[in-house]
Amino acid sequence: MRVIPAVKEMQAEVLNQKAQGKSIGFVPTMGFLHEGHLSLIKKAREENDLVVLSIFVNPLQFGPNEDFATYPRDFERDRALAESEGVDFLFYPSVEEMYPNPSSVTLVVQKRTDVLCGKSRPGHFDGVATVLAKLFQIVQPTRAYFGKKDAQQVAVVEGLITDLNFPVELVPVDIVREADGLAKSSRNVNLLPEDRKQAVVLHKSLQQAKKVMDEGERNPSTLISLIKEMITSESSGRIDYIELLSYPQLLPIERLEGKFIIALAVHFTNVRLIDNFILEIN
Amino acid sequence: MRVIPAVKEMQAEVLNQKAQGKSIGFVPTMGFLHEGHLSLIKKAREENDLVVLSIFVNPLQFGPNEDFATYPRDFERDRALAESEGVDFLFYPSVEEMYPNPSSVTLVVQKRTDVLCGKSRPGHFDGVATVLAKLFQIVQPTRAYFGKKDAQQVAVVEGLITDLNFPVELVPVDIVREADGLAKSSRNVNLLPEDRKQAVVLHKSLQQAKKVMDEGERNPSTLISLIKEMITSESSGRIDYIELLSYPQLLPIERLEGKFIIALAVHFTNVRLIDNFILEIN
């Protein structure tokens, strides 16, 4: 595995490989790898000639009061994990390398952003889209792998790839969970012990909502109320949102049908956690 | 030469060619080709294995009161010219093909737009950047050729390529002029006979300004006044702007030094014409 910190070197390498007909699987991350990331890498490894993993904590997608400074980082551990998963190139640029001067051009996401995380994180998805547009140019992926935990991100990336004609196949990968159901997240490490115990309620409430739906409930409000009640009674977490929307359009629906997402975000002491189920009724 | 109207077919073709190590020269145009365009094609032909010409009148870069509807079009003539210049692929998509639905993502140009044409054409360069980002994905150029007549566009594209890391070499090509000095433009065909005669003053005034500069003048205001006076006295054109700025940064300068542009735009009866000199004093 080669670690490449320079944009020009990374780009020259993949352009050279692509000129030889090689396919490139790309896993963009902010590092502090967990089993969720590893499942993306494994899938990329299976489906492509070469695998590029990027680790870059992108300041553009953090708001002024968000956790850019405290976002967990451990490069040596990440490097060892990447190597053991058979990554070919680990792209690890500095902020200065990615943004040498204030950008003269940025991307603005016009749709799918005024709901879920986008509502409380203005500009977040503009930052995601801008860094991904750059990374897609630098890494030239044939396929790009994203976790369904960030379901709104997957929806935004789907729009980005389609509307700007990136020749990239988007591959969404299922959420990986702890034994007790908590979705794997780099941020979990910042949970206080008591919060960690309570955090299981996120997944539990989604399961309960699915159960009620399987029994025939078709009213979105009923499911949302049920989840809200469970989280409030079984944790001290402060609910940011619980929403039920069509997927990937992320528009409100009045009755459960077609493909939709139930998604939630809850603040604990040091960490805001998200989780979701993407479901389909036909 | 193959004419390709479909995005997917164009992209598949160039990706296939690039996987065989071929270089691609790209000339993006709005059609109604003149000798200026042909000089871009000739240069692309010399420097690349394959040449892609695109013809697309991009609605996104026209304002509501601009000439999208009357912009001159003559596809059969353009096709014959492209063929005779040795173009390999003529990409000729419909508006529906390029923008099948309202875009969920657009590009916003943050710099170099509040001067020259950008000042009187709000959103114009956002539309240019958005369509070029798409075209760069669809055509996958090794090199892209742009005329220096649209000098602000060249400056914006330079920022776009650098800041979003497009692996594309920007090749600016000199202005081609009529025998009397008028810069070639697709819009010249819409000039009334009397306006056509008077329009020669644009180039003449730039030459006069350069002469005065060569004789030692270093004050931008003096040159601007001189140009303004010539245009006003020798034509009935209405001046949109006459500006003198650093290039490609497009920032005001107080004294002529380094690389700079003298650019102007003048409204005639049916047409707004632009012209410029890019000069350097060291």
TrEMBL record, chains A, B:
Presence of keyword Nucleotide-binding: yes
Gene Ontology MF term list: ATP binding; pantoate-beta-alanine ligase activity
Protein origin, superkingdom: Bacteria
GO BP terms: pantothenate biosynthetic process
UniProt keyword list: ATP-binding, Cytoplasm, Ligase, Nucleotide-binding, Pantothenate biosynthesis
Membrane-spanning ranges: none
Compartments, record wording: Cytoplasm
EC primary class: ligase
Positions of (R)-pantoate binding: Q61, Q153
Catalytic reactions of this protein: (R)-pantoate + beta-alanine + ATP = (R)-pantothenate + AMP + diphosphate + H(+)
InterPro entries linked to this entry: Cyt_trans-like, Pantoate_ligase, Pantoate_ligase_C, Rossmann-like_a/b/a_fold
Residues forming the catalytic site: H37
GO cellular component: cytosol
UniProt cross-references to Pfam families, sorted A to Z: Pantoate_ligase
SUPFAM superfamilies in the cross-refs: Nucleotidylyl transferase (SSF52374)
Binding site for beta-alanine: Q61
Described purpose of this protein according to its UniProt entry: Catalyzes the condensation of pantoate with beta-alanine in an ATP-dependent reaction via a pantoyl-adenylate intermediate.
Subunit structure: Homodimer.
Record protein name field: Pantothenate synthetase
Gene: panC
